[in-house]
Amino acid sequence: MNFYQSGWTKVLTTYHRFAGSWAWIFHRISGLALTAYIFMHIIALSNLQKHKIDGGKAFNEEMALFSSPFFLVIEWLLFAFVLYHTLNGIRIVLVDFANGARYHKQLHYAVVTIGVIAFIAMGYVIFSHQVNKTVAMLF
Amino acid sequence: MQVTFSIQRYDSSKDKKPYRQEFKLDVEPTDRILDCLDRIKWDFEGSLTYRRSCSHGICGSDAININGKNMLACQVLIQDIKKKRIKIDPIPGMPIIKDLVVDTTDFFAKYEVVKPYLIAKNPPPKERFQSVADRALIDEAVNCILCGACTSSCPSMWGNPNYLGPAAMLKAYRFAFDSRDEAPAEHLEAIDTSDGVWRCHTIFNCVEACPKEINLTWHISQLKKKMVEREL
């Protein structure tokens, strides 16, 4: 007799998500995003090889592109992924090899709090120069 | 107060897919979900099928999924749910036989893999003595009633049906850390595989699901530590 079994995607989308499940989902997403990023990073770096023949033109063009406001925002997001993956990675090590499993929710809240503060601080570092320049132009 | 129950129905002998059926009941906030299921079965729909035996949170047969979370129907009150609409499903990740009854063959096959019994080579002189401190190590782990709520709530298990699951892992801990067990390595050997203890990604769904409030992930982390210590 054939018994019915729901597929894992259906179960994953319908089962209630607790703090630990969110931590796991974000860890997976940030991990995939960082994997995708490293390929783009290698492609971008390999393009710089041209500077040997064009006297720095390719390098300057690429740097100009990466300092545009759009790429600054993308970089800020990249920092968010690196930050979350690092902090939650530390949380997982504490859970697996210290007594963290007893305090996993507190650890998760600590990860989120430290993450948000560092994310905002990094936003200031990235954009303060741009914002100051705009403000100076206006007044 | 009136509460709507939306229950997933399915009969493997005639239905291709599960469907939902709704029942409206006048209930007291202190009624258990199991009482409501009983009333639905006795007064409205005799064909509704679910497992229940002791109905006091000891036998572990009535683990079901209530509003997306695995719980014991006999341990949860209407007032704990805090919703007027209660969705009831069989526990996920296991084949459904009928309505809320799932096939637990696989669950118990995995349970047997970890040798869930005390391995003692010789008969005891008089009794197998255990100190209070040694017993304290397994105080939490012995509370497991094998309801399957944890294993069924585990995303690692949904994604990889070969994963032994938290319930089997807890049982491995219970005997590997028992001072009376003479071959802890035999329990550990069974779970030191990619489908064993290392498949746990510390998602903590099992801890949220456990009706006996056992911190399964903590026990799995102790097993992981033991594995690493063995290698050093």
What do these coordinates show?
The complex is a heterodimer of chains A (139) and B (232). With 139 residues, chain A is mainly alpha-helical. Chain A has one domain (18-138): Fumarate reductase/succinate dehydrogenase, transmembrane subunit (3 helical TM bundles of succinate and fumarate reductases, Up-down Bundle). Chain A is 82% helix and 0% strand. Chain A contains six helices and no strands. Chain A has helices at residues 8-14, 19-47, 51-54, 57-66, 69-97, 104-138. The longest helix of chain A has 35 residues, at 104-138. Chain A is extended and about 70 Å long. By secondary structure, chain B is α+β, with helices and mostly antiparallel strands. Chain B folds into two domains: 2-102, Beta-grasp domain (Ubiquitin-like (UB roll), Roll); 105-231, Fumarate Reductase Iron-sulfur Protein, Chain B, domain 2 (Orthogonal Bundle), CATH 1.10.1060. In chain B, 35% of the residues lie in helices and 15% in strands. Chain B has ten helices and seven strands. Chain B has helices spanning 33-44, 78-81, 105-113, 132-137, 149-153, 155-159, 166-176, 184-191, 205-209, 216-231, and strands at 2-9, 19-26, 63-66, 69-72, 85-89, 96-98, 101-102. Chain B has a five-stranded mixed β-sheet. Chain B has a two-stranded antiparallel sheet with strand order 6-7. In chain B, helix 3 runs parallel beside helix 7 (166-176), helix 7 packs antiparallel against helix 8 and helix 7 packs across helix 10. The termini of chain B are far apart. The mean pLDDT of chain B is 94. The interface between A and B is medium-sized, with 27 and 37 residues.
Cα distance spanning the termini of chain B: 61 Å
Class by SSE composition of chain B: alpha+beta
| Element order of chain A: H for helix, E for strand | HHHHHH
CATH superfamily of chain A: Fumarate reductase/succinate dehydrogenase, transmembrane subunit
Overall pLDDT of chain B, averaged?
A: 94
CATH architecture call of chain A: Up-down Bundle
Form type of chain B? elongated
Give the second-level CATH assignment, the architecture of the largest domain in chain B.
Answer: Orthogonal Bundle
CATH superfamily of the largest domain in chain B: Alpha-helical ferredoxin
Report the count of strand segments of chain A.
Answer: 0
Average pLDDT level of chain A: 89
